[in-house]
Amino acid sequence: MLAIRLDTDTEWLLAPDSTRPRALQLLLVGVAAPAAQPFSKPDFRSGQGRERSGFVEQVQAAGREITDDPRVCPAEIPGQLTVFQMRRRLTAEAAYGIVDRPVDGMDRVLEELAGYADENGYSPSWRRQVREMIRLTLAVRDADGQTLVAPQVIDDLPAYGVQVSEVLRRANLLGRRTGNPVHREAGSGRHWLPKRPGSCPDCGAWSVGRCQGCQQWRLNREGKDPVGDCTRCHRTGLPLMGTLCRGCSVHLAALGPSAADEPFTQLWFGGQLAEALRILDGRLGYRPTGRRGRDLAVRLPAERELSPHLVDPAQLILFDMARDWTEIAASRVDELPLLTDDAQVLVNEFDELMIDQQWEWRRRKDAVRCLQKLFGWLGSDARLLERDVRALSAASLSISAKRTVQLLERRGLVADPARRADSDELAVERLLRALPQGIGDELRVWAAAARGQGRWRHEGLSFRTIRAHLHKARPVLEEWATTLGSLREVESEHVRAALRIRPGIMQGQHLAGALRSIFRGLQHERVIFQNPMRGLVFSKVVRLPASLSSDRLQGLVEAAATPLDKVIIALVAIHALSGHDIRHLKESSLDLSRGRLQVCRTAPHTVFLDETTHHLLEQWIR
Questions:
Q1: Element spanning 599, H or E
Q2: What confidence score (pLDDT) does residue 187 get?
């Protein structure tokens, strides 16, 4: 050691056993002899402080083999794009496996490293360790085909990440961060590679060793379920659930029962991306299970198909029956059958037409929804019946039958009037056929005019109102038909005689109203020349509802058995709603925060709730 330290003898350093003898040294009293210290220990007596002998390091480096493991971060073509950017596990062993690898930019980094170490007073040992970490990061840069070192690479270093980042920044070799930094847990400075990397021996997932899912699977089934051969993949020695291993169970859960006969098992990613039978909330790929999964499956829209009830225009009708649109009106558009291509084109054309006509957006939205329901269920090849449109409008208050029919009539998509019939229309037709031909034909003209299809277009009456007028006037019309051949022959005396023999004031008023509508319509259509109801004045009795005292109302409310009964009593006694109004009320029409209730009538009607009714409705909802 003295020969090497003092004389820089290379032969003694490389092969101390086979070298020549060394000359004797002169020992003088009072003069300290040179110290024989290990080469790794600094020589304080040499005046070099804590510096190690650079000659020793140079000779040892020249005598050993070049260390450059080709398995550690092999360089790629610069600018090469990476399909899957996977994080690496950088270790100290990997860094010391490429200590002799030449990398671009290392000379510039060593200059900045020397300056940084001098500024902070770092030792030569620190410099060597940081130098190898920097070399490792530059090797990763070349393996990724980049020109700068990504900050994510420094996050994966086992040590000296802050110092390496600062030196690379000074050398202008540090790239910009594109994500959040990785916060490493305490005590995780070094990464140890697993002993046997490879696929999971149980499920075959692309992972390292047995995946966490299979480990938990074995733990949960230890002593409970048998270990044997899977009946699907025929692998042996696996914990089974029934007759299937976990790999086959995951395969069937992901691809469905139809994959049971497939001769292969899907290869999955392991780790965080692993497919599992149950993925917890907050994890990537979460799927609710149990009751939440069933509820979600109910809420999720099913795959939409064409309606099996599409109408063929060439198909003859054997029994013409009215359709019930209640379920269709309550369904969302995404729950309806899929529109055909022609139907979708028609809906788009109608939507553009409504935009050109500057429809209100709410009315336009309701009309489009009505068309989607009609075309989705019946198709657009055959013309639609007006009664279907009106039935759908009656089942859904947001749909306007009149506007929808007008749109369809523009394209000739409404069937001829002979096929537009509902229950009231059929009743009107039946009443007209029961009358003699002359009077019946005249009343048909009146019915068409009442529907708004006469000489002057106007908003027509409903078939229900026309039916009511005919029902009230039918006895008188049948009586006149026995002596008169036409309604032109009816005079005011005939009308007075008919009203005189009708018992009851209300019955007479109803008959007078029906006859006034009939003769006025016939005169407008020029069927008759003189209105026999002209000049006749009838007394009208208006019966006001009797008021109900507050104590009696309170007694009725307290005697009610259920909260719903109390609400009905309050709506009838306080707000005078009829039985028809109450039967057609919807929960969505109630706005407790504003104290309002929308009543389903022909014209919009809003009920402003008093304190008592508001309190009873609130109790009923709760």
A1: strand 596-599
A2: 42
Same domain, residue pair 430 and 519: yes
Tally the C-alpha atoms within 13 A of residue 371's C-alpha that lie toward its C-beta: 29
Q: 100 and 163: one domain?
A: yes
Residue 75 and residue 143 in contact, taking contact as beta carbons nearer than 8 Å = yes
The predicted structure's pLDDT at residue 195: 46
- Close Cβ partners of 310 (under 8 Å, ≥ 6 residues apart): 340, 378, 379, 381
Say if 229 falls within a structural domain.
yes
In a domain, 188, yes or no: no
Task: Say which residue the tokens 């657009």 belong to.
Answer: 380
| Burial per residue of 328-367, b for 16 or more beta-carbon CB atoms within 10 angstroms, e otherwise | bbeeeeeebbebbeebeebbeebbeebeeeebeeeebebb
Residue 39: the pLDDT is 56
Q: Which residues of the chain have pLDDT under 50?
A: 44-52, 183, 185-195, 292-294, 296-300, 418-420
| Run of H or E residues at 447 | helix 437-450
Residues 282 and 335 in one domain: no
- The b/e string for 469-508 (b: 16+ C-beta within 10 A; e otherwise) is bbebbeebbeebbeebeebeebeeebbeebbeebeeeeeb
Considering the domain boundaries, does residue 192 fall inside one?
no
Here the tokens at position 456 are: 């002057």
Q: Which residue from 215, 220, 179 is spatially nearest to 200, judged by alpha carbons?
A: 215
In this predicted model, what pLDDT tens digit does every residue of 342-357 receive, in sequence order?
888 888 888 888 888 8
CATH number at residue 609: 1.10.443.10
* 3-class secondary-structure state, position 98: coil
**248: exposed, middle or buried (Cβ count in 10 Å: 0-12, 13-18, 19+):** buried
**Separation CA 147–CA 103 (nearest Å):** 12
Q: Are residues 96 and 56 in the same domain?
A: no
pLDDT (0 to 100) of residue 208 = 63
Q: What are φ and ψ of residue 320, in 5° steps? A: -90, 110
Q: Give the C-alpha separation, 605 to 599, whole Å.
A: 5
CB distance 379 to 371 below 8 Å:
no
Q: In terms of residue numbers, what domain contains 345?
A: 326-419
Classify residue 189: in a domain, yes or no.
no
Round to whole Å and give the CA distance between 217 and 248.
13
Q: What is the maximal distance between C-alpha atoms in the chain?
A: 168
Alpha carbon distance 569, 555 (integer Å): 11
- 501 and 520 inside one domain: yes
Residue type, 501: I
Q: Which of 44, 39, 51, 48 is nearest to 3 (CA)?
A: 39
Strand partners, 598: 606
CA distance 463 to 393: 15
In three-state form (DSSP H/G/I as H, E/B as E, the rest C), the secondary structure along 552-597 is: HHHHHHHHCCCHHHHHHHHHHHCCCCCHHHHHCCCHHHEECCCCEE
Q: Which of 369, 386, 419 is the last residue of a domain?
A: 419
